[in-house]
Write a structure and sequence with these properties.
The protein is an alpha/beta fold. The protein is built from 13 helices and 14 strands. It is an enzyme of class 6 (ligase).
Length: about 400
């Protein structure tokens, strides 16, 4: 693999990405390392990240506030698609990767870098998402992944970093690997690698234990326009505020935890714990609003599209021809997905209890069994005769009648 002169490094401030800075310079002969940290709602985790990167040897340290873009362009697209990987995981961590990739490529082009780098290992999904995304956005850029090649243990990585001014973690390192952004948290490793081990309560931050949740239910109303959530309890909110407020309301009732064994892109199974309160409830509410605004055939056909869409996101194919084509289909289906959904939050469950839309194609006059019934019952007999004709003919032939 050819080395590079100037590199833009995806930077989190953790041990691995900090060690990547001196490693790229000392071992691979990189002249300049520019770090890029994306603020996607990690909160205090960003901290003094700018100074840390410069201290570790970076010539420039960029911190980009991308929270609004993250929600508007990535989370909302996923909600419109009801994207749940393996029908459970709302892709809260995976959705951040194509945005970080885009920011890396833009920075590389702006600063004249000939390569981008990341701190991913060879076992995870993120290396695939970064590498393939970069190939799609700018195939002329080299992609460097030092942690995939250096072969150092955690202890050796810390020791290597200390030689070049990378501070080792002060407190005893947590056995868990945690990734956090505005949409949620993913927790893995340590004791969680045993799929029979119950996750300890200490790992959760966004969701309360059921014992600590309110003893009275709370009702919320989420408003949508063309498939996009725009309001909470009648108040129009900007995208970031909507997610922040919904995370707090939903998490307070112990809603939004996922414990699953998933199939990684690289072929191994991985036990993952997720917290994604707002995103899970928004997908649930959005799908429910579609039930009264989309025709049956569109609803049923879209389910297959949604599964494909979630796989594309998980597998690092956000920037791909198929994803672009599916976006066009999904956007077309969302033209009349406007309305409101009422949800009851109580003791770990979000139950949809009401929905309405000016575009509703639910007809009480046809659905009712009361005196207002306008459905032509006599028409059913002829319909059933035609509908069942192939089955009748098949039965007669196979049974020799």
């Amino acid at each position: 693999m050819g080395r590079a002169n100037k590199v833009v490094l995806a930077y989190s401030g953790g041990v691995d990405t900090s060690v990547c800075i001196p490693y790229l310079i000392k071992e691979w002969g990189v002249q300049e390392v520019i770090t890029l940290a994306a603020d996607l709602g990690q909160g205090d985790e960003l901290g003094p990240i700018k100074e840390k990167a410069l201290k570790c040897g970076a010539v420039e340290s960029l911190v980009v506030d991308a929270k609004e873009e993250f929600v508007k362009e990535y989370a909302f697209a996923s909600i419109k698609a009801n994207a749940l990987y393996e029908n459970r995981y709302p892709l809260s961590t995976a959705l951040a990767r194509p945005l970080i990739t885009k920011l890396l490529v833009e920075a590389a082009e702006k600063y004249g870098a000939d390569a981008v780098a990341h701190g991913c290992t060879g076992k995870g999904n993120d290396q695939v998402r970064f590498d393939v995304g970069i190939m799609a956005l700018n195939p002329t850029l080299k992609v460097l992944a030092p942690a995939r090649e250096w072969g150092m243990s955690r202890e050796e990585t810390i020791a290597y970093g200390e030689k070049f001014g990378v501070e080792s973690p002060v407190k005893k390192s947590s056995p868990f690997s945690i990734d956090r952004n505005l949409l949620g948290r993913s927790i893995e490793a340590g004791p969680l690698e045993d799929p029979m081990t119950e996750p300890p309560e200490e790992i959760y931050l966004m969701t309360k234990a059921i014992a600590d949740t309110p003893n009275e239910p709370e009702y919320i109303e989420i408003g949508f326009e063309k498939g996009i959530p725009v309001s909470l309890n009648g108040q129009t909110l900007d995208p970031v505020s909507l997610i922040v407020q919904l995370n707090e309301k939903v998490g307070k009732h112990g809603i939004g935890r996922i414990d699953m064994v998933e199939n990684r892109v690289v072929g191994i199974k991985s036990r993952e714990i997720y917290e994604a309160p707002a995103l899970l409830v928004l997908i649930d509410a959005h799908r429910d609003l579609e039930s009264i605004t989309l025709t049956g055939d569109v609803t049923h056909y879209k389910r297959g599209i949604e599964e494909t869409y979630s796989h594309l996101i998980y597998q690092g194919l956000w920037y791909s021809p198929l994803k672009e084509a599916l976006d066009a289909f999904i956007d077309k289906t969302q033209e009349r997905v406007t309305g409101m959904v009422r949800i009851k939050l109580f003791k770990g469950k979000a139950t949809i209890v009401g929905r309405k839309s000016a575009y509703s194609i639910y007809s009480p006059d046809l659905a009712t069994y009361g005196a207002e019934d306008q459905f032509d019952h006599k028409a059913a007999e002829g319909f059933i005769y035609i509908w069942g004709l192939p089955t009748r003919v098949w039965s007669q032939k196979t049974k020799g009648l």
